[in-house]
């Protein structure tokens, strides 16, 4: 018999599901199965589950045709489980490395009905909070098992399904199932403990309980939080049906119920102000209905006062107490803020610089009406007219002629703006005016922190690549690569987004976890790649002629990415030796990352006629079209170039160092878009032997394109314009 069956329900967890499944499948203990249930998730969760099931026979995919909710989805997984124990792990949480070895040993040695394990709350800002395990069990219970009546303090551990493993036959004999609705853990976790004859505790952190910034029900306001009441009613109805067997536990269970109700009510992110009085009234009703005849242990201090106010139904006093507490906390925060800001405020008052005056002008413009016809575009921190914003701008001119598009560019990049394109120079009064009054703000990076998005404005974040390296909040785990990144400031900027344009499902999954906020994802392909799809052979010939490239020459584009953790790093690459390996008909175009646009001149090769530095060329799509082969490392260029279905070579001399220092989302050397060379000598051999076009390289590219390029059909920009500017509904998804 399999030892542990993991049941993993999945609904809107595409950004986290891979980490969850990897944390299970990567454990040293292999006597497991994973039943992953796609609860008709509207994102790519089901596809991810199928992907894992296809490559690991321990994973079983269950795809539901309609959304049933977390509790029923767990029941469906439980019905398919064959393990001796069942572990219900949520799809956005993950296991601690190697924890399963200790878990399995404890199960085999003690054979408990229920094994409670420890966890940490892992917050979006990469901090962690310990559980109550140390307070509940100051001394470790060790391998001994017990009944709940002997150690009722076990009920003070978090009442979730994922911090306990349950013997499957015990659960079947008990006939206990998850109820539908929110707070479904309540009517499962407490009864399981009350009915168990052998409860074990493993005080080892096994679960990382993810505290999501957006998307969790604990951060969702609404009347569905009233569903906590019927869940607790089920607990007491079960106790009534079990009779004297659980009567001694009733006072402790009652105290947990009132504690839980007050916790939900006290969370300002759950119960809206207009619902709070009704919620309190229901607490009082349940207090009167379920109060044990002999009373219960009322907590001390402020918590005890809250219990007494609930018992007497004194909502106004309860509300006033809460308001006073919140006012006191707010006053303390204001005092701390005042101490931090008094110096800067005084200094600002002492010197009103030109920038300060312009910011005042910006604030004045914010009070003027939004221009319903104005769209502002920017790319790469105002480096010029390019990338996804440029592609959207061009289609908007055609499909939405009533929208006036204005670009923001740096003063030193004005000469790169095409004729007929209206622009303003960054830092001028016109710049602040359009930022304040534009209806649409379109950028492939974030606007500066001072920009305030007004309610009438629409912010479109187009991004500028499919991520290999980790991005956003995920960089917190890689402090060397993140440098001095301001993550709080990043989230302030992300909160301005209304739309996030995604090139493929993989990008959508990564953006979900890297930039958690309430924006709408437009998974439509990358607008800048439309041109790669629609370019005709005549256009390619014209571009090659403009670059001085003969039709029969083999043109290789070398485009390495930037190393944030190694500012001066240049990959070991000798252009003279490289063009020699290409042969007499070979030409090399070299393009540095845009971060190096102020210092981009490579050492001059001896054979300069066959090597050209194209770092200054404004539109990289031109370079893709003229190149026969792309050589890159970890750059998002590989995803764009793959649209052309031409050979790609990954040159990865520092892969291990880059992966460890910068962090990556997947191993591009294991799932490459073509041939891979880890040394310069290997790179030369690939071109000397034409290994760049081998059968293996071609098959790798086919697989890569199937994963990342299916949306690039030449209409990505049109889809963005129709949905964002024209208000048309997005193309219907095939997912339920």
Automatic annotation (TrEMBL):
Protein name per Swiss-Prot or TrEMBL: Glycosyltransferase EpsJ
Main location: membrane
InterPro entries found in the cross-reference section: Glycerophosphate_synth, Glyco_trans_2-like, Nucleotide-diphossugar_trans, TagF_C, TagF_N, Teichoic_Acid_Biosynth
Membrane topology designation: Peripheral membrane protein
Gene3D superfamilies: 3.40.50.11820, 3.40.50.12580, Spore Coat Polysaccharide Biosynthesis Protein SpsA, Chain A (3.90.550.10)
Family under the similarity heading: Belongs to the CDP-glycerol glycerophosphotransferase family.
Subcellular location field: Cell membrane
């Amino acid at each position: 018999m399999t030892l542990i069956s993991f049941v993993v329900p999945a609904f809107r967890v595409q950004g986290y599901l891979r980490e969850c499944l990897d944390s299970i499948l990567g454990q040293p203990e292999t006597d497991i199965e994973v039943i992953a249930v796609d609860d008709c998730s509207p994102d790519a969760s089901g596809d991810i589950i199928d992907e894992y099931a296809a490559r690991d026979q321990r994973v079983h995919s269950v795809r539901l045709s309609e959304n049933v909710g977390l509790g029923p989805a767990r029941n469906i997984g439980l019905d398919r489980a064959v393990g001796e124990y069942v572990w219900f792990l949520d799809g956005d949480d993950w296991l601690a490395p190697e924890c399963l070895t200790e878990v399995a040993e404890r199960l085999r040695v003690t054979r408990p009905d229920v094994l409670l394990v420890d966890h940490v709350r892992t917050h979006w800002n990469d901090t962690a909070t310990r559980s109550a395990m140390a307070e509940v069990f100051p001394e470790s219970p060790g391998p001994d098992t017990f009944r709940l009546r002997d150690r009722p303090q076990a009920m003070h551990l978090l009442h979730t399904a994922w911090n306990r493993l349950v013997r499957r036959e015990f659960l079947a004999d008990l006939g206990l199932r998850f109820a539908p609705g929110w707070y479904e853990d309540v009517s499962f976790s407490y009864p399981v403990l009350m009915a168990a004859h052998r409860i074990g505790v493993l005080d080892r952190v096994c679960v990382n309980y993810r505290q999501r910034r957006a998307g969790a029900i604990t951060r969702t306001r609404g009347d569905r939080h009233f569903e906590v009441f019927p869940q607790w009613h089920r607990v007491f109805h079960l106790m009534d049906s079990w009779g004297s067997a659980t009567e001694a536990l009733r006072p402790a269970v009652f105290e947990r119920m009132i504690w839980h109700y007050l916790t939900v009510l006290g969370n300002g992110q759950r119960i809206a102000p207009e619902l709070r009085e009704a919620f309190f009234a229901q607490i009082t009703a349940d207090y009167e209905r379920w109060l044990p005849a002999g009373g219960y242990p009322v907590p001390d201090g402020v918590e005890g006062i809250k219990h007494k106010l609930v018992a007497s139904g004194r909502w106004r006093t309860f509300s006033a107490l809460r308001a006073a507490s919140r006012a006191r906390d707010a006053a303390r925060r204001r005092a701390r803020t005042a101490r931090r800001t008094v110096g800067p405020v005084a200094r600002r008052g002492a010197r009103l610089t030109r920038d300060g005056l312009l910011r005042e002008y910006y604030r004045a413009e914010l009070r003027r009406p939004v221009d319903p016809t104005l769209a502002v575009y920017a790319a790469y921190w105002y480096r010029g007219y390019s990338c996804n914003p440029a592609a959207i701008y061009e289609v908007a001119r055609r499909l939405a002629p009533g929208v006036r598009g204005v670009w923001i560019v740096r003063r030193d990049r004005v000469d790169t703006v095409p004729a007929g394109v209206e622009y303003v120079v960054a830092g001028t009064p016109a710049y602040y005016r359009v930022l304040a009054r534009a209806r649409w703000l379109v950028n492939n990076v974030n606007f500066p922190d001072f920009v305030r998005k007004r309610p009438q404005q629409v912010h479109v974040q187009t991004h500028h690549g499919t991520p290999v390296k980790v991005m956003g909040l995920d960089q917190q785990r890689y402090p060397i690569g993140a440098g001095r990144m301001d993550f709080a400031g990043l989230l302030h900027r992300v909160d301005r987004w209304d739309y996030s344009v995604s090139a493929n499902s993989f990008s959508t999954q990564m953006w979900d976890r890297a930039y958690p906020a309430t924006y709408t994802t437009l998974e439509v392909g990358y607008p800048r790649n439309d041109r790669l799809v629609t370019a005709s052979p005549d256009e390619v010939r014209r571009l090659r002629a403009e670059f001085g490239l003969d039709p029969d020459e083999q043109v290789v584009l070398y485009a390495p990415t930037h190393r944030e953790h190694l500012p001066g790093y240049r990959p070991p690459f000798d252009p003279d030796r490289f063009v020699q390996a290409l042969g007499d008909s070979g030409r090399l175009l070299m393009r540095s990352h845009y971060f190096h646009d102020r210092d981009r001149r490579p050492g001059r090769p001896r054979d300069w006629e066959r090597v050209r530095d194209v770092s200054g060329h404004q539109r990289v799509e031109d370079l893709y079209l003229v190149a026969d082969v792309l050589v890159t490392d970890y750059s998002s260029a590989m995803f764009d170039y793959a649209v052309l279905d031409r050979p790609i070579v990954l040159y990865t001399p520092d892969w291990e160092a880059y992966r460890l220092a910068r962090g990556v989302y997947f191993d591009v050397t294991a799932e490459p878009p073509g041939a891979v060379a880890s040394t310069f000598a290997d790179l030369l051999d690939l071109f000397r032997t034409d290994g760049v076009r081998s059968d293996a390289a071609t098959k790798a590219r086919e697989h890569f394109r199937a994963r990342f390029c299916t949306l690039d059909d030449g209409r990505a920009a049109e889809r963005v314009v129709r949905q964002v500017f024209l208000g048309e509904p997005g193309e219907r998804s095939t997912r339920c």
